[in-house]
Design brief:
single chain, 62% helix, 0% strand
Length: 121
C-alpha cells in the first residue's frame, strides 16, 4: 500500500512522510504499555485554546507566553495531584516545601513498571 504511487500528489506525499516515521509508529509493538492515542494531550491543548479564545487572547507575545506557561503549570500540577495555588505560593515565597515539578515527575515515573521492555542505557 505504501510502496506504490497513487498518482494523487498529496496522498503520495503523505504516504512518503508516514513511511519515514514507520519506526516511531510501530514503537507500540515493542512497548505495549504505550498508549495507542494521544487524546489526553489533545484535550489539554484544546482546553488551553478554548480559554484563550474566551478571554479574547492576549495583547502581546509576552502575554501569550506567560498565559501558556501558567496554563501548562495548572495542567501539570493537576495531573500530579498538587495544588496549583500551593505550588505557586511555595515558589513565590521561596519556602522550598514542594519539590520541583521535574523532580516529582521523575519520582512518580520511577513507580511505574515497564515490564522490562525499556532499557536504561
Amino acid at each position: 500500500m505504501f510502496n506504490s504511487d497513487s498518482g494523487y500528489q498529496q496522498l503520495d506525499e503523505r504516504k512518503r512522510l508516514t513511511t519515514t516515521k514507520i519506526s516511531e509508529l510501530l514503537l507500540v509493538l515493542e512497548h505495549p504499555e504505550l498508549p495507542l492515542h494521544n487524546n489526553p494531550a489533545e484535550l489539554d491543548a484544546r482546553t488551553m485554546v478554548q480559554r484563550r479564545n474566551i478571554s479574547y487572547a492576549t495583547q502581546t507575545l509576552e502575554g501569550t507566553k506567560a498565559w501558556d506557561i501558567f496554563m501548562s503549570l495548572v495542567a501539570t500540577t493537576r495531573k500530579l495531584g498538587i495544588s496549583f495555588f500551593e505550588y505557586m505560593r511555595d515558589r513565590i515565597s521561596q519556602l522550598g516545601n514542594i519539590p520541583s515539578l521535574g523532580t516529582i515527575i521523575r519520582e512518580q515515573s520511577s513507580f511505574h513498571s515497564f515490564d522490562g521492555s525499556w532499557s536504561t542505557e
